[in-house]
Each structure stands twice: as C-alpha cells, then as structure tokens.
Amino acid sequence: MKRFRTRAVHAGQRPDPLTGAHATPVYSTSTFAYGSFERGARLFEGEEAGFIYSRIGNPTVRAFEEKMASLEGAEDAVAFSSGMAAVSALAFTLLRPGDEVVYLAPLYGGTEGFFLETLQKFGVIATDAGDVERLEARLSPATRLIYLETPTNPNLCIYDLAEVARVARAHGILSCVDNTFATPYLTRPLEFGIDLVLHSATKYLGGHGDALGGVLAGPKELIDAVRMEGLRHLGGALGAFEAFLLLRGLKTLPLRMEAHCAGALRVAEYLAKHPTVRRVHYPGLPSHPGHAVARRQMQGFGGLVSLELPSREAAGAFLNSLELFTQAVSLGDVESLATHPASTTHQLLEPALRERHGITEGLVRLSIGIEDPDDLIADLEQALERATATTLVDS
Ligand code: 4LM
C-alpha cells in the first residue's frame, strides 16, 4: 500500500473513463440512465453495481468516499451532507427503542444535544460514562454503541483509543470515534480496534471553510447498512460540488496538518506563559493530562488550542480585540478562527452540564490556521492585553 501523502493525492481518483479528464469531474446529475428495463431491475436488485440516483451514490461523491476509506484504513466509507447527517444516519440505522448509547463527554454540542434530546424521543437512552476508567462499569445489557471524540470539542481531552476498543470488544458493543479534530493524518482509530470512524468533513478534510460534509468509515457490512438505511431513508446526501471541494482539500491534508500542528504548539506554549491565561488545553503540552496517551495515538497534536480566561467578560473582551482571528464557529480552516463555546457551539447544553464537562464561561477555543505563527501570537498578545485591562477593571 502507498504511503499516506501519496494516498491523500491519488486514492479514489483516476482519469475520467469517458473523457480522460484528470481532475474528477463534478457529476452534477440527480439520476443515471440505466439503459434498459432489465438493467434497471438488476441495479435495484443489487445484482449489478452502478449508479442509480445521487441520493445513494454519485461518481464524484464515490471518489471522496474511496479516498476517505483509504486514508482511514477502512474497508469502505459513506459520505453525507454534513457531520450531523452522518451522526444521525449512524444512530437511526444501528439503534432501536430500548437501546443505549454510552458516550465519553464532552462532545460537539450538536452531537450531545442529538443524543440527549432527539434520540430520547425514539426511546434510545444516552449516558455519559465520564471517563475511560468508568466506561466498563457504565455499560448495561442495553448498550449498543460507545461513542467518543478525541481530542474532544471544545476542551481537548484525550481518550485512550486502545482501551476503549478493548472494553467495546470484550462486551460485543460497537464503538465509533468522531475523528474530526485529529483527522486520519494524526490518528487512525480503526488501527486501535475501533469499529467505525466519523467526521465532520466541513473541518480539516475540506480545510478551506467552503463546504459542508460528513463521512463514516468502517467495515463494508456496516457501511452498506448505513448507506441503505440511514442515507437512503434520511436523505442527507453529499452534493457533487461539495465532494469535489473535499477531494481537492484532502490532497493537501498532510501539508496543512503539519502547519496547523506547528502553529498550535507555538501558540499553546506562548499562552501557557501568559499571566492572564488561567489554563491552556493543548495535548502537545507535557502538562496536559492526556499528553502521554496523545503521544501514543497521535502523530502530532492537532490545530485546536483552548484557553481559560478569568471570566466571561474577559473572554468577550479578548475575542472582540482579535484582528487576525475571525470570531466564528467551525474549525480546521486555513484561516484562524476563535469562539466562546459556552455561548456558541455548546450553548444548547444546560449550564450544569457544561460545567460538568469543564466548558467554563471563561473558555475560548482557537482553531489555529496556517498563517505565520508569529503574526498569530502578536494578535493574541494585543488581545490579551485588552482582556487583562478588562479583568483588572472587573476585580
Ligand atoms: C464547531 N462542529 O465546533 P457539521 N463533530 C464534531 C464537530 O466539531 C462538529 C460536528 C461533528 C462545529 C460546528 C459549528 C467534532 C461541528 C458536526 O457541522 O454538521 O458538519 O458537523 O464549531
């Protein structure tokens, strides 16, 4: 098998058989002519492989799925219109009333909200196991799925994938890791024995903040099941143009991730020395509680850095003073972004739940882009100066 950087460029893509087009064309078509009554019947029976209708398969989207399967080391992958479409398709395919999802918090606020509110309406229970040490004890006969992120959104906890996989396998329970923050360049969960890996492709996979997408990768049998139920019936299909943008983004994933990781480490080291910053969360800092595990399971520590300022007001003053960072949700773009999770990405969670997950009012999440780290640090420096002035006035 070719190495990762080579697969990022080539996997899933070949010259267009009809025209020889070198870049995978945007197959902007809803439906595909099957040519004859007999072939139509064979396609629908699954006796012959071929495209039928773009909600369940499209050549541009298929190239993206094949590239992602290759990068994650999975048998197959299925793409969606967003990360949340992937999460909901997975859940509605695998779970039945009475089943339980055990998850390791925190998660992206939308995912935890979906687990606690939407799934509950369909009789599925979602339980936060708290940490890996307590995971095994929290499983019940109804547990059907173990779900986690690592590093976690927004405060970058690290979970031990080998240990999660061991527990899941010992109990015959499926495990799924949302690998959005790490990307397959830094961590490939399936190599640790995890069953399924999910992404918001909107983030690092696309990398340029111009496309929404999601993807799920894993064993062919499970991917087929999710495609034929969760994708076909819920309908969250990835568009061909978005697939084209994601394919283009993926070619430079390794190069971008190197720049994100190098920049984030510089920023984290700078912030860790700043007197106004109460705490820095970055798995690349030796002081991070998950540093040793991160060293084992990541080939770089990622592009997200979170910092705790003394108060919500200080966080607001800091964010309003940033000039190079854009105040916006989302992450993984070439441009640096900054947000206040408690009032944005995790705002829907009950304050007590946020508190329990360590999503404090002073927490700010930075997505470090690929700009020159010296310019980013200069911007943080001037913004921290203004936040410090606010803090002094407050106290
Ligand atoms: C954000 N995140 O945090 P779509 N999984 C993870 C995520 O961070 C997200 C999703 C899934 C943010 C969006 C506003 C770890 C999203 C959901 O947004 O549906 O592609 O992915 O800023």
TrEMBL record:
PROSITE patterns: CYS_MET_METAB_PP. GO terms for molecular function: cystathionine gamma-lyase activity; methionine gamma-lyase activity; pyridoxal phosphate binding. CDD domains: CGS_like. SUPFAM superfamilies: PLP-dependent transferases (SSF53383). Residues 1-22 are annotated as: Disordered. InterPro entries: Cys/Met-Metab_PyrdxlP-dep_enz, Cys_met_metab_PP, PyrdxlP-dep_Trfase, PyrdxlP-dep_Trfase_major, PyrdxlP-dep_Trfase_small. Its EC number is 4.4.1.11. The modification N6-(pyridoxal phosphate)lysine is found at K203. This is L-methionine gamma-lyase. Keywords: Lyase, Pyridoxal phosphate. Its cofactor is pyridoxal 5'-phosphate. One of its GO terms (cellular component) is cytoplasm. Belongs to the trans-sulfuration enzymes family. One of its GO terms (biological process) is cysteine biosynthetic process via cystathionine.
